[in-house]
Amino acid sequence: EPVRSYPMGKLAAHVIGFVGADAHGLEGVELAYEKYLKATPGKRVVYRDVQRRAIFQEPDSYVAPRDGMNVVLTLDANIQEVLEKEVGGAVERFQAECAVGLVMSVKTGEVLAMACAPTYDPAEANKYKPERRRNRILTDPMEPGSAFKQFVMATALAEGVTKPTESIFCHNGLYVTGARRLSDHEPYGSLTVEQIMIHSSNIGMAILGQRLGNMRMHRALKQFGFGSQTGIDLPGEGEGILMPLKSWNSFTTTSVPMGQELAVTPIQLATAFCGLINGGQKIRPRVVAAVVDRNGEVIEDHTRVGDLGTVVRADVAATMRGILAKVVNEGTGRNCRLDQWQVMGKTGTAQVPRTDRRGYEPDAYLGTFIAGVPADDPEIVCLVQVRKPNRRIAYYGSAVAAPSVRTVLAYVLPYLDIPPDEKPAATGKPASLALDRRP
Question: For residue 266, is pLDDT > 60?
Answer without folding.
Answer: yes
